[in-house]
């Protein structure tokens, strides 16, 4: 029997961040993951942006999450020796003079000043439809998620144990102070499996939100992300851009749809005036929660069985900081923020034993 400190099930953005943090702290880990091209983490454009939404407000905990993620992914690049983190400004065209004036005023607000790189009052970038100028935001960028997950996987292979298999719950035995899975014994098991949530946590409201993106080839060459209606994020190859994303709670079917392609292309044409070829289309399901906050904590009756899930639409910015929060809670008993603690759902959804 091989003894480790933790078994992690799932190596998407949640499991990868947790694995890095644990290995950095010299913990022994076994990661079990069955890679699938359509998992949320693999199809994500990897965008991180601290000022979002129709009203363009600071995202939840931005002042904590964004400095943390910059440090985390830069260090992960150094540790793994691979390049996957690309900080770059994000440009949002204004729709009117009123909006332009509103941002001129907001630029003096200390709450926003740290995120504004520049405000343009007339067309600033070739091919972008921005007659009223726009807002250039800093602390933004993208993570090449497939490269990141691949790099972390190689590092786990070197420093810990990784098993490419479908985790079979029949083989899990839960004892009073440890768990056993096949030939491995651990103090705790942590489920990071996104929408394929474990049966231990089937009662939690983790809802699959379908998203689709398209990959295009065009002559646009600026070193920025453009965002209004859709985002336009650099792809892996020169001249490739990922356009996304759709949000569809109704569609629970796997696969791409012509409706999503039409929606994305129409929004792209509103934003950009440039010819392009569509190279491919992708789909995936985001693991969302009703209050849009992650879920951290232990099973109501099994303290060794832990969950790290519910990263929703913002896995890139949430996973680094909240993996750290989870470890501090598991190892030092540091209380969890009530907004992410599984406790908030226990009274509403927990009724029967597994
Ligand atoms: C189209 C689209 C675009 C997106 N764009 C962005 C973006 O730009 N920025 C952003 O921050 N977020 C984005 N997201 C959201 C982001 O992808 C998610 O927040 C994040 O990937 C969730 O990560 P996760 O690790 O919790 O889950 P997942 O990515 O689903 O990873 C779970 C892992 O567990 C494995 N697994 C599950 N069950 C088992 C089992 N029984 N045995 C073995 N392995 C198992 C899966 O194969 C997978 O590898 C996007 C999502 C979609 C769908």
TrEMBL record:
Q: Name one Pfam family in it.
A: DAO
Q: Which PANTHER family match?
A: SARCOSINE DEHYDROGENASE-RELATED (PTHR13847)
User: Which intervals hold domain FAD dependent oxidoreductase?
Assistant: 5-326
Give Gene Ontology CC terms. cytoplasm
**Natural source organism:** Ohtaekwangia koreensis
Spell out the protein name for this chain. Answer: Glycine/D-amino acid oxidase
Q: Which InterPro entries match?
A: FAD-dep_OxRdtase (IPR006076), FAD/NAD-bd_sf (IPR036188)
């Amino acid at each position: 029997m091989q003894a480790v400190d933790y078994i992690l099930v799932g190596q998407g953005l949640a499991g990868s961040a947790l694995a890095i943090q644990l290995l950095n702290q010299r913990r022994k880990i076994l990661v079990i993951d069955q890679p699938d091209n359509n998992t949320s983490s693999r199809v994500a454009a990897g965008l991180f942006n601290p000022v979002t939404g129709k009203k363009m407000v600071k995202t939840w905990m931005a002042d904590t999450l964004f400095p943390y993620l910059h440090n985390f992914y830069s260090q992960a690049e150094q540790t793994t020796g691979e390049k996957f983190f690309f900080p770059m400004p994000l440009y949002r065209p204004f729709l009117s003079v009123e909006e332009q004036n509103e941002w001129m005023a907001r630029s003096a607000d200390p709450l926003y000043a740290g995120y504004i790189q520049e405000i343009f009052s007339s067309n600033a970038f070739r091919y972008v439809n921005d007659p009223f100028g726009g807002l250039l935001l800093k602390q933004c960028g993208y993570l090449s998620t497939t490269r990141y997950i691949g790099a972390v996987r190689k590092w786990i292979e070197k420093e810990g144990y990784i098993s490419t298999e479908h985790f079979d719950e029949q083989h899990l035995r839960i004892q009073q102070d440890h768990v056993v899975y096949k030939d491995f014994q651990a103090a705790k098991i942590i489920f990071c499996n996104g929408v394929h949530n474990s049966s231990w946590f089937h009662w939690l409201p983790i809802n699959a939100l379908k998203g689709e993106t398209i990959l295009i080839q065009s002559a646009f060459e600026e070193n920025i992300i453009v965002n209004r209606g859709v985002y336009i994020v650099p792809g892996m190859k020169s001249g490739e851009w990922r356009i996304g994303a759709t949000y569809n709670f109704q569609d629970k079917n796997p696969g791409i749809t012509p409706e999503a392609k039409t929606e994305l292309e129409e929004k792209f044409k509103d934003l950009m005036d440039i010819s392009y070829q569509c190279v491919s289309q992708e789909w995936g399901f985001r693991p969302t929660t009703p209050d849009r906050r992650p879920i951290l904590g232990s099973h109501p009756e099994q303290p060794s069985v832990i969950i790290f899930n519910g990263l929703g639409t913002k896995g890139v910015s949430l996973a680094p900081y909240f993996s750290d929060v989870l470890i501090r809670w598991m190892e030092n008993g540091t209380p969890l923020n009530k907004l992410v603690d599984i406790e908030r759902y226990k009274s509403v959804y927990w009724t029967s034993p597994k």
